[in-house]
Amino acid sequence: MNDDNNNNFTERHKERINKVLKRTGYILIIPVVLLISGLLSLGFITDYIWMDTIGFAGVFTTVFKSKIWLAVIGFLLFAVVTFFTLSWIRHTYLGHMDRSQLPAVLLERKKIIPIIVGIAALIGVFGSSITQGFGWERTLKFFNHASFGQTDPYFNLDISFYLFVLPFLKYIVYLLLGLGVFLLAVEAAAYSVFHIYRMSRSAQLHLGLTLGFIGLLLAALHLLEPYDTLLTNKVSLFQESVVHGLSYTDKVINIPKAYVLAAAALIGTVWMIVALVRGKLRGMVTPVAIYAGLLIVGQLASGSVQNFIVSPNEFSKERPFLEHNLSYTKDAYALNDIKEMQHPGNSSLSEAMVKRNQKTIDNIRMNDARPLLDVYNQLQTFRTYYEFNNIDIDRYRIDGDYEQVFVGARELSMKDLPDQAKTWVNQNLRYTHGYGITMSHVNQVTPQGQPKYMVKNLPPEGVLDISRPQIYFGEESYQNVLVNSKVDEFDYPSGEKNVDTRFNADSGIPLDGINRLLFSLNEGSFRMMISDQITDESKLLATRNIMERVKRIAPFFTYDKDPYIVVRDNGSLVWMIDAYVTAERYPNAEPYKGEKNYIRNPIKVTVDAYTGDVNFYVVNPDDPLLKTYQRIFPDMFTSDIPEDIQAHFRYPEKLFTVQAKMYGTYHMSNLEVFYNREDSWQFPTEKYFNEDIVMEPYYMTMRLPEEKDEEFILMQPYTPKNRQNMISWIGVRNDGKNYGELFVYRFPKQKNIYGPQQIENRINQDGEISKQLNLWSQGGSKVIRGNLLVVPIEDTILYVEPVYIESSNATSLPEVKRVILAYGDYIVMERTFDDALDAILKKVDSSGSKKENGNNDDSQKDSNTEEKDDSSQPLTNAEEQLRNLSDLFDTYKKALSSGNWQKAAEIMEQIEGELAEVN
């Protein structure tokens, strides 16, 4: 009895211990689960707080909600279908096999169901990551897309179908097709055991349903293929058409082939299901073979038509499709409204012309941004922890004059600090910001060849008042910092002392309450959590690199890699960044990079260098892609643009380069010329740093012929393909209401206008100039040839190139020592631009006077001859001829002053004809 009692007591004791252990385990598991969940959600929480503090919480929640909904849908879809599939497989096993043949786990429902649920949940998690990761942007665009108001030429569908609807449909089909193939693989593996698929109706029905599902999706893919023919120039696996978009082979073969393959996929699926149900497994191979054969035959048909029908008569066969390619490519790159004008390329330079265009002359760039960056970094940093990352070109009104300038931001760089100075306090609390800008004239240098500053030193002094010179946000790879701590921030050096400051703005993440814990964990900084230097008034300035900042807010835009800093009217500093909307599926348009064939710059982004405040300004509200984003994120964009911000809008070089390159081909309106590429234009080459490089677009301040005032122009010369003479130049306006207007000036084809490389070659061939450059190179110095600028002035062209001399010393500075000026057949090299211009004008005047003297001598000889022949015969109609010449010359001057150079050239030819008759 006692033994039994002892045993019972022991059993009850064990049960109690087990219950306690289970309860303890549950109690311990709960905080562990909560901790893991908290760590996983920490990033989302801190991201939301950060977005909320800068005013873009709506963007975060919109994206987050879309991802959550898609994740839930993806999880349910993949998990439910997987659970259904595994349960069917188990049911088939139980119905077909003897229980003794099956593992015990399959027989016990209480054990197998949790396992199936677990596997289904795992597959569901995988599916949710795919659906939300690849689908959130496509889904938002699909449900909010704006119309282009323009249809394609074949299917008559709005362009928005190809950019928003078609990608969403293909995403859905590929998602489901991937799921179907995965399920088929699982079923095939499960039912191949003991050849169950041969004997079990349940297995055959299951496989048949999955095959039917896959067949429907394959048919759907083939039904979408005709629309893809408008988006590529590929006509077969190994062949491309001359046409980007729909071509002859696509219309005749590829589109009908897609419908045939869709029907074959459906019929073949039914065939396979019937063969499977009837147990005729070999019969299942037949539809697969037929489908594969049709694929091969289709490719052969496309290749044969392209080789034997299209290629021998390519232009006639592709003519209507080339027209669509030409038209829609112009639409995709906004090239339809380019204004083309004639430029006579006259040799008409004179002192009077120079005086009429003095402001243009005064803004011709003598310095170059790349050598200038070295100068700024050596002469205007003052301490090792400052650095200029870039030098940008902008324009300002200085004392009423419209002046082009170089400007650079003096940013904080901790990489060159001594190791002993790289303490946690210094890096996180003390050294927090850069300070001020440096600005210099583009056209003036000191006698030593250094830039002539307009704003310089610490604190900034010069022509602009800068009230907030501190740069907390910039182009440097800044780490996050803490402001308003007990430690004063270093502001700028002043002699032997340092000036301190305190951050004074309503921005940054407050570190009161739970925020300090959250962001300490997020930063992985225990010091941040325990430091007694941080108070409830302290703030965290996070994501201070401006490019990372805007990408974190709006990753769906493409951003220009060249932000530039602007001094506002109130003396604050802001960064300006161009944001692009791009697309890959504009029908019938040639891509400019990869598959991208649509680009616009409808948004200008500003980031305050002090507060980090970000604004997305709308500059082109009519763009359909922008309208789509506005529907998705209605509170993100700002339409009211301050005047001092708009005054510094620059047409971005990237967009202009893409448009200019495309226009080099797509300016041809004659289809046969376009097909043969007979009049292709390309960017010229120039010598830069002693290497031949492709010329890049450049900004100029100049007066267009039909305008009264100078304006900021971005321009690019063209040369004919494989030739070096200049055929035309393209420009875009940057100021006021004219912002974004593209225009082209064509030079006469019957005369040679020197291209940049021809001028470079002539510089090399000039005996005096090349001799001087070689002497400098041999004297332990390095000669740097700066950018060659092509400068249109009224009806003529100047060419300007600065020459830098740099000592071989490691700490030497490049200095502008000479300026080369070319005009017509004349080339001079002088110490300053003014000296070079005077030298050119003297050569022009000298040449003109020689011609006049020569004409007078000839006239005198002719007159003497006439007197000898018949001294009694008077000159007839002399007064009338002089009056006609005077009237023609007055009309010529009016045409010049109004900028009508073509008319001026015609009048000059008429004057020369009249003079020839008089002589």
Short description:
The chain is α+β, with helices and mostly antiparallel strands and 919 residues long.
Protein described:
The protein is an alpha+beta fold and 919 residues long. The strands form eight sheets. Strands 1, 21, 24, 25, 26 and 27 form a six-stranded mixed sheet that branches. Strands 2, 3, 4, 6, 7 and 8 form a six-stranded antiparallel sheet that branches. Strands 15, 16, 17, 18, 19 and 20 form a six-stranded mixed sheet that branches. β18 (598-608) and β19 form a beta hairpin. α2 packs antiparallel against α4 (109-144), α4 (109-144) packs antiparallel against α5 (159-191) and α5 runs antiparallel to α7. The radius of gyration is 38 Å and the shape is flat. Mean pLDDT is 87; it is low at 852-876.
Give the helices and strands, then pairings:
Blueprint: H1 2-53, H2 57-96, H3 104-107, H4 109-144, H5 159-191, H6 196-199, H7 201-228, H8 248-277, H9 285-310, H10 314-332, E1 339-342, H11 351-356, H12 358-362, H13 369-379, E2 386-388, E3 392-398, E4 401-412, H14 424-430, E5 434-435, E6 437-445, E7 451-456, E8 461-462, E9 470-471, E10 481-483, E11 489-494, E12 497-501, E13 509-510, H15 515-523, H16 526-530, E14 539-541, H17 546-553, E15 558-559, E16 564-567, E17 573-583, E18 598-608, E19 614-618, H18 624-632, E20 637-638, H19 643-646, H20 653-666, H21 671-676, E21 681-682, E22 685-688, E23 691-694, E24 698-702, E25 711-720, E26 728-733, E27 742-746, H22 756-765, H23 767-778, E28 781-785, E29 789-793, E30 796-807, E31 815-823, E32 826-830, H24 833-870, H25 878-897, H26 901-918
Parallel strand pairs: 1-27, 19-20
Antiparallel strand pairs: 2-4, 3-4, 4-6, 5-9, 6-7, 7-8, 10-14, 11-12, 13-14, 15-17, 16-17, 17-18, 18-19, 21-25, 22-23, 24-25, 25-26, 26-27, 28-30, 29-30, 30-31, 31-32
Helix pairs in contact: 1-2, 1-15, 2-4, 2-5, 4-5, 5-7, 7-8, 8-9, 25-26
